[in-house]
């Protein structure tokens, strides 16, 4: 369990998705939203470093809350369309996996043995 493989994989996926969203937003809207996207990425990276280096449970729950909040905001957007709804579901799933990564790893490791 010390490896936290599931958690590291989810965090890697989150970074990739955030970078893709930054590029997409820049291409669609322009650079006025780029600052906000960059701050989101830095905020998540700081939390991820705290989680991985210091095993911070507080940072873990803040990251979960961030994903739930982002999912709710995307879902509540008036003109979010299908992309907004997909992003909402993505954020909710990521939050759930982060919450229960330890249980998921235990279950996967018990099935391997």
From TrEMBL:
The chain crosses the membrane at residues 7-29, 35-52, 59-76, 82-101. The keyword Membrane applies. Keywords: Membrane, Transmembrane, Transmembrane helix. This is Uncharacterized protein.
